[in-house]
Amino acid sequence: MVIIYYSKMASSVGGNGYSDVTRVLFCGHYWPASTIYTKEYLQNYPFIQVDEVGLEHVPDVIQNYHICVVKNKCIDSDIIAKATKMKIIMQYGVGLEGVDINAATEQKIKVARIPGSTTGNAIACAEMAIYLTLGVLRKQKEMDTAVIQKDLGLPVGETIFGKTILILGFGAIGMEIAKRLRPFGVKILATKRNWSSNTVSCDLDGLVDKKSGPEDMYELAREADIVITCMTLNNESVGIVDHKFLSALKKGSYLINIARGRLLDYTAVFNHLESGHLGGLGIDVAWTEPFDPEDPILKFPNVIITPHVAGITEYSYRTMAKVYTCFFAMHKVTSHLPIMYLLL
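Above: the chain's sequence. Below: its structure in token form.
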């Protein structure tokens, strides 16, 4: 759905000499392509000023901006209270768990994100889930060691064919994962809070072999050889992959996470890797980011990690940058009331 609304931006004079400049704040220097591509597409819109500020400096400057793109910055009520000119707080992609939406609402600040199904983000994340799954099955770290040691024919990996895969969270990403898994000859299980036709945008016949709500996740875990988490992080889902869930898995099962790091209980995952009950772990997201490369969990030979790049592709990021360009600057009418497009 596209909602069009008008908002009067505070009159100011930017460094480009234009009055009524809309100032956009990108929080932090991680995921640099987000800022680079957005600035590239905004070159013909001199009345839009985009700045990238280090995470630690955001609270000191946020009062100067009309739009905030949070990335991995936590925007709490204290920061929002300082954002006196703010009209919109946005995420470059999906996931708004770092924004105090209630505090923003009280300040009459809109909060927005771009659905991953519209930009290629969901597809990119699904591809990464497959990549990590194959990586742990074929023992990526041990293969790297074999190359260094000039060995051949080792390690002996596993095939994805014939496996039972549980997708925790059958949203846009979960659906794209299932579509890509089906040709591998696997059995697909999935959980979702609401399976009504209004919340599922594809025909499930032939795509999911067994579906249920989160309350049945332990029962489904007993059948799974591989679990892929792609749930939304909220108060209910923090640490949902815990000792009870991991204990329900078959010995030697694999765990993949391309959603949010805190969905997994660190201690439970570590202990199940140490005991050998968990056969391998592939993660694109971690409990803290950037993750400590010396963390003990990364010392296990059956753990592989990527640096939160599941949704980061040339296609997805350029598509998002184009959407933001429209969002920031599609129209500028004579009354200096920018038209903003809010994608829900």
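Residues 1-15, 331-344 have pLDDT under 50 and may be disordered.
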